[in-house]
UniProtKB/TrEMBL annotation:
Belongs to the ABC transporter superfamily. Macrolide exporter (TC 3.A.1.122) family. This is ABC transporter related protein. The gene is macB. GO terms for molecular function: ATP binding; ATP hydrolysis activity; transmembrane transporter activity. The keyword Transport applies. The lineage of its organism: Bacteria, Pseudomonadati, Calditrichota, Calditrichia, Calditrichales. Keywords: ATP-binding, Nucleotide-binding, Transport. InterPro entries: AAA+_ATPase (IPR003593), ABC_transporter-like_ATP-bd (IPR003439), ABC_transporter-like_CS (IPR017871), ABC_transpr_LolD-like (IPR015854), MacB-like_ATP-bd (IPR017911), P-loop_NTPase (IPR027417). Gene3D superfamilies: P-loop containing nucleotide triphosphate hydrolases.
Length: 226
């Protein structure tokens, strides 16, 4: 099992007001699953993804990622897990505008201390994997939206993470380009990657193996796609 979440609750205090973003969530995700998380605004899906991605911590409950209980880890330890275990893909790509595609993909390797001689080789392999090796020396403003997202996916893969978290990865793309990105995710999953994808689009979620639906901070449905 890759992810185990038990009785997880997250409460935000906004002045004197307490907002219960997640309420007693229980969830497990096996290795090599391909899961969509859906729900309207305010349902808790972003909070859940932030906790799974070790960007936030729960108020109570347990979250175990790849055998490690992350609840009591320090900020430095959480940062290490984010870099080692999790690859992030965002709707807005989050690429450095002045850096080439190759350098953007190299960044996680710089943070984890990979020697310079190896970084370029590994980054090029990842760009090849997403079909973008011929754009390695182009900057983001010289790439289409779909190509930028491919760079972001290559960057997410570069540390060989246990988990890929994709937050609305097709949200800024036209439908044809979105289909191409979803094909890449499908191929990555078939190659053994575990993927959790947040989306508000039903047709995108239907391309995943499993759909978890949230409402008011609770899981209301957890279904396998037929």
């Amino acid at each position: 099992m890759l992810i185990l979440i038990e009785n997880l609750t997250k409460i935000y205090e906004l002045g004197k007001v307490k907002v219960r973003a997640l309420n007693n969530i229980n969830l497990s995700i096996e290795r090599n699953e391909y899961v969509a998380v859906m729900g309207p605004s305010g349902s808790g899906k972003s909070t859940l993804m932030n906790i799974i991605g070790c960007l936030d911590v729960p108020t109570s409950g347990r979250y175990i990622l790849n055998g490690q209980d992350v609840h009591n880890l320090t900020d430095d330890e959480l940062a290490h897990i984010r870099n080692k275990e999790i690859g992030f893909v965002f709707q807005t790509f989050n690429l450095l505008p002045r850096a080439t595609a190759l350098h953007n993909v190299e960044l996680p390797l710089i943070y984890n201390g990979t020697p310079r001689s190896k970084r370029k080789e590994i980054a090029m392999q990842m760009l090849e994997r997403v079909g973008l090796a011929d754009r390695a020396n182009h900057r983001p403003n010289e790439l289409s939206g779909g190509q930028r997202q491919r760079v972001a996916i290559a960057r997410a893969l570069v540390n060989n993470p246990s988990l890929i978290l994709a937050d609305e990865p097709t949200g800024n793309l036209d439908s044809k380009t979105g289909e191409e990105i979803m094909q890449i995710f499908r191929e990555l999953n078939e190659a053994g990657n575990t993927i959790i994808l947040v989306t508000h689009e039903e047709d995108i979620a239907r391309k995943c193996q499993r759909i978890i639906r949230l409402l008011d901070g609770e899981i209301i449905r957890d279904e396998l796609n037929s």
